[in-house]
Amino acid sequence: MNNKDERAHDLRMYFTGFIAAVILTALSFLTAILQPFGSVGIFASLAVLAAVQIAVHFRFFLHIDVSRQKREELQLILFTGLIILIMVAGTVWVLGNLMTRMM
């Protein structure tokens, strides 16, 4: 591929990712406004839409996929996410425990 073809391919990828992100954001807002699924269904559908949005951003904007060349970057991002999840869950657990002890 020459430079012009690569540029056109990248622009197509960015445009596709932008359209997908806008659609997912609109679906999230519509789900929150219209509340079609009940309270538990809203949170579940918003979590699914958020996970899909993360995947769209990884694929189209950060160019991270499951190919061999990008696998190390994906593992680094997933490990970072795991550490953040452990920190947040631990904080919520400790604060919840302190709240129950104070009541």
Short descriptors:
103 residues, mainly alpha, 2 domains, flat
How would you describe this structure to a colleague?
The chain is mainly alpha-helical. The chain folds into 2 domains: 1-63; 67-103. Helices cover 85% and strands 0% of the residues. The protein has helices at 3-34, 38-61, 71-102.
Q: Main beta sheet, described?
A: none
Total count of helical runs of at least 4 residues: 3
> What is the strand content?
under 5%
Return the string of H and E elements.
Answer: HHH
Shape: flat
Integer count of domains: 2
The averaged pLDDT comes out at 91
Count of beta strands: 0
Runs in which pLDDT lies below 50 for 5 or more consecutive residues are none
Assembly classification: single chain
Query: Radius of gyration, Cα only, in angstroms?
Result: 19 Å
User: Percent range for helical residues?
Assistant: over 70%
The end-to-end distance, rounded to whole angstroms, is 67 Å
Give a short summary of the structure:
This protein has 103 residues and is mostly helical.
